[in-house]
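Input C-alpha cells:
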C-alpha cells in the first residue's frame, strides 16, 4: 500500500515514536518510499510518524549554498534513532511549514546550532554539528518523533493568528 500522509488532527502525530530495533528490509524500503514521498511533495524533511509509522526515523535534504549559484538540495540523508544535543544559546526566528499541516507557515524561534547523533541506513553511527536552516529542519523532524509540531513552539500571538487556519485544516482532513 502506498504511503499516506497524516494530517494535523491525527493522533499519531501526537504520539511518541519508538526506537528502531533493527534495520530490516522493511525499514530500507520504508526509507526509500519516504524519500520519494518527500520529493513528490516538495518537502525537505519527512519523519516516519507523518506517514503513520511510529518509529524514530526521519529523512531530509540539506540546503547547499554555493556562492554565486542558486541554492541546491543535497542527496537525501537518513537519521535513525537520532539524538539532538548541545543547542546553541543563540536562537533565531525563521519560517517553517509542515507537510502534515498544509497551507500554514509561521515564524518559529529555535537554536541556531545543534549537534545530531544518529545511525544511517547501513547501521553506522555518525555525529554532525549543523547550523542555520539545516539545523532547524533536524529540530523540526526530531520534534515529530516526540509528538511535537512546530505550531507548539509559537508564541501566543503567532499561535492565535493561525488558530482559525488550524481549525480549518483539522476539519478538512478529519471531517468527523
Ligand atoms: Zn513537519
Amino acid at each position: 500500500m502506498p504511503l499516506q500522509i497524516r494530517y494535523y488532527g491525527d493522533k499519531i502525530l501526537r504520539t511518541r515514536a519508538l526506537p528502531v530495533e533493527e534495520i530490516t528490509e522493511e525499514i530500507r524500503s520504508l526509507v526509500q518510499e519516504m524519500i520519494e514521498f518527500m520529493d513528490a511533495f516538495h518537502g525537505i524533511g519527512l519523519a516516519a510518524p507523518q506517514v503513520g509509522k511510529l518509529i524514530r526515523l526521519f529523512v531530509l535534504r540539506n540546503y547547499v549554498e554555493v556562492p554565486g549559484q542558486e541554492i541546491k538540495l543535497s542527496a537525501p540523508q537518513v537519521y535513525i534513532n537520532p539524538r539532538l544535543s548541545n543547542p546553541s544559546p543563540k536562537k533565531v526566528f525563521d519560517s517553517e511549514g509542515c507537510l502534515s499541516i498544509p497551507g500554514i507557515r509561521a515564524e518559529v524561534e529555535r537554536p541556531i546550532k545543534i549537534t545530531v547523533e544518529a545511525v544511517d541506513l547501513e547501521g553506522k553511527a555518525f555525529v554532525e554539528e549543523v547550523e542555520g536552516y539545516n539545523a532547524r529542519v533536524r529540530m523540526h523532524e526530531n520534534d515529530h518523533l516526540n509528538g511535537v509540531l512546530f505550531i507548539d513552539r509559537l508564541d501566543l500571538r503567532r499561535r492565535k493568528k493561525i488558530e482559525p487556519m488550524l481549525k480549518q485544516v483539522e476539519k478538512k482532513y478529519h471531517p468527523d
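The first helix runs from residue 25 to 40. The longest strand covers residues 77-85.
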